[in-house]
Structures are given as structure tokens and as C-alpha cells.
Write a structure and sequence with these properties.
CATH topology of chain B: Serine Threonine Protein Phosphatase 5, Tetratricopeptide repeat
Largest sheet of chain A: 4 strands, parallel
Structural class of chain A: alpha/beta
Number of strands of chain B: 2
Shape of chain B: globular
Number of domains of chain A: 1
Number of helices of chain A: 5
Structural class of chain B: mainly alpha
CATH superfamily of chain B: DhaL domain
CATH architecture of chain B: Alpha Horseshoe
Oligomer: heterodimer
Largest interface: A-B, 16 and 18 residues
CATH superfamily of chain A: Phosphotransferase system, mannose-type IIA component
Order of helices and strands of chain B: EHHHHEHHHH
CATH topology of chain A: Rossmann fold
CATH class of chain B: Mainly Alpha
Strand content of chain A: 5-15%
Number of strands of chain A: 4
Shape of chain A: globular
Largest sheet of chain B: 2 strands, antiparallel
Helix content of chain A: 40-55%
Number of domains of chain B: 1
Strand content of chain B: under 5%
Chain lengths: 136, 204
């Protein structure tokens, strides 16, 4: 393990409980001593279904250790909101990136990889690779 | 020339139109969407009207950038980043000039629509807001009222289309026969522009 900071992960879902549960699942499966910072940004601030730019920005700031932030999203407005935030220079921490990956499998891969100290490119590659895991 | 006050009037007129039509927008969103378009946009544009009154930005570009940012942070559905990107991109194109011409607005709005197309991946004919905005921008060279009529016609023309973007696209051919809610609210936005210009071009 090096001293370099870990990549942060943000999980964005239309549902607060889904985002939180996937954070728990990915963190639990990653185990290990040095767990990468992971935050949920699910639903709207009042607990409804939807996407909140403010929750996403706050989650990204909370996991930013200076090594970049990988954002995984479920669908629709979650995708569009993260893209719209990334189109601005100052809404998300430097090195923030939308990672095109399946939400659950990609989250597990990203958290495991980031916790091992991998850089943002490697975290993104691991999450994207989860698309290739066939189930039959 | 169009000053910051004109753009604030445009946003206020849009907020009033969205508030007036919120029930209809949500009804259109019920068979092919998740029945939240009217309430989401009403929340967003109400917040836009409030923040514009409070902060009173001094240039056309600043009005639209602030409005766009507000929509992205308050709407909670896909229309937030889409309309937010439309207004923010348009505002950035206008720069910090204290007044802009109708031609400059038309060019800036064209860039805004292109940004929406890039963000959402929709092209004309996909049964989205682009189907109202694209003809509106083309007609803006003629007049604000022509743009409003073109947007309304574009929205109506989405009825026979198959949705190819967003949640409605899951329905495939079952989306035929319904007017797209996003195209409908886009027509309200352009009608409000004509209203702000003092041209009654909204039509039916």
C-alpha cells in the first residue's frame, strides 16, 4: 500500500434506499482494511424518487481525497444530471468522471479496485469490465 | 435590443405558463412517462422565478445561466438537466453583453439546442423536446411569434411518433398516439418568449 490517496466513488440512483444498499453491498464485499471512500446520492432531498444535483455534488465532495471521483449512475435523469454537472467546471471536484458501468456489479468492481489503491483509470476500467460478466 | 429585464420576463412568463399547464403536462406524462413532468417543471421554474427576483442578474447571459443552474438543482427529473443545459448553454453563448439582438438570441438558442441534443442523444423525430425546439429555432429568424407557432406545431407533430428516448422508449409502438410532454413544455417555453416580446404568437 502506498501513501497516495484513494479514488472516491459516488453511487447515484433514483432511489435513496437503492443507493445506500449498494454502497453497503460494495463496501461489504470489498472488505479489507483500507476501504475507498464511497458515498450514496440517491433520490431527492425529501426522500422521493428522482435525482438531486445537490446530493450528488455533496457526495462527490465528501469522497474526494484528491485522486479523482468515479460516479456510477442508474438511468435517465441520474445519467443526465451527472453529465450536466460535469459540463461545468466548478460543480464537481477536479478529476470527477462518469463511469459507464452496470450499477451494482460496477459498484462492487469499482470499490474493490479503488480500495486496493488503483488510480481512476484502473477503477473505471474495472467497473466498465463488469458489463462483460455473463451470467449463463 | 433585448436586455436582462426581457430575459427575466421570459422566465417569469414560462413559470406562469408551466404553473397554469402543470396538470396537463403531468396528464400527458401519465400514459408514456412517470407522471411527474408538470410537477417537476413547476417546482423548477417557480424556483427560477424566485432566484431571479432575489439576485436580479444584470445581463441576459447571466439571467439564463442562473435559471439553468437552478433548474438542474431543483427539478429532480430528466427535464432538469435538459432544460438546465438548454438555458445555461444559451446564456453562455450570450456572454456578458448588457443587451443582445434577436439574431444573437437565435444563434445562442441554436447552440443551446445543440447542447441538449448532445446531452440526451435525441435527434428530431425521436418524440422529445427537440421536436419542438428545433423548428422553433429555425423560425426564430422570422419572428418570435413564428417560433412559438413552429414549436406548438412541432409538439403536436409528436403524436404519431414512436418514442426513442427516455422512459417512453420502453413502450415502443405503444407510445404512438400520445403527445410528448417534453415537446409540449418546450412549446410553452417558446410561447413565453413571444409573450415576453409582446407578440401574441402562442396560437392554439
Amino acid at each position: 500500500m502506498t501513501e497516495s490517496p484513494l479514488v472516491g466513488i459516488v453511487l447515484v440512483s433514483h432511489s435513496g434506499p437503492v443507493a445506500t444498499a449498494v454502497v453497503d453491498l460494495a463496501s461489504g464485499l470489498a472488505g479489507g482494511k483500507a476501504l475507498a471512500p464511497v458515498a450514496a446520492a440517491g433520490g431527492t432531498p425529501d426522500g422521493g424518487l428522482g435525482t438531486s444535483a445537490d446530493l450528488i455534488a455533496a457526495a462527490a465532495r465528501s469522497v474526494d481525497r484528491g485522486a479523482g471521483v468515479a460516479l456510477l449512475v442508474d438511468l435517465g435523469s441520474a445519467v443526465l444530471t451527472v453529465k450536466a454537472l460535469l459540463a461545468e467546471d466548478d460543480e464537481l471536484p477536479p478529476g470527477s468522471r462518469l463511469v459507464d458501468a452496470p450499477f451494482v456489479e460496477g459498484a462492487v468492481a469499482a470499490v474493490v479496485t479503488a480500495s486496493a489503491g488503483a488510480d481512476l483509470d484502473a477503477v473505471e476500467a474495472a467497473a466498465r469490465e463488469a458489463y462483460a460478466y455473463r451470467k449463463e | 435590443m433585448l436586455d436582462a429585464e426581457f430575459f427575466r420576463r421570459w422566465m417569469t412568463a414560462t413559470a406562469a405558463a408551466v404553473d397554469r399547464e402543470a396538470t396537463r403536462l403531468t396528464e400527458l406524462d401519465s400514459p408514456i412517462g412517470d407522471a411527474d413532468h408538470g410537477s417537476n417543471l413547476r417546482r423548477g421554474f417557480t424556483a427560477v422565478a424566485t432566484v431571479l427576483e432575489k439576485e436580479a442578474p444584470g445581463t441576459p447571459g447571466a439571467v439564463l445561466v442562473l435559471a439553468g443552474r437552478q433548474l438542474i438543482s431543483t427539478v429532480g427529473g430528466a427535464s432538469g438537466p435538459l432544460y438546465g443545459t438548454l438555458l445555461r448553454r444559451t446564456g453562455k453563448e450570450l456572454g456578458d453583453a448588457p443587451e443582445v439582438s434577436a439574431e444573437q438570441l437565435a444563434a445562442a438558442l441554436r447552440a443551446g439546442v445543440e447542447a441538449v441534443t448532445k446531452l440526451g442523444g435525441a435527434v428530431p423525430g425521436d418524440k422529445t423536446m427537440v421536436d419542438a425546439l428545433d423548428p422553433a429555432v429555425a423560425a426564430l429568424a422570422t419572428s418570435f411569434s413564428a417560433a412559438a407557432r413552429a414549436a406548438a406545431a412541432g409538439a403536436e407533430a409528436t403524436v404519431p411518433l414512436i418514442a426513442r428516448k427516455g422512459r417512453a422508449s420502453y413502450l415502443g409502438e405503444r407510445s404512438i398516439g400520445h403527445q410528448d410532454p417534453g415537446a409540449t413544455s418546450s412549446a410553452l417555453l417558446i410561447a413565453a418568449l413571444a409573450e415576453a416580446a409582446g407578440e401574441d404568437g402562442a396560437g392554439a
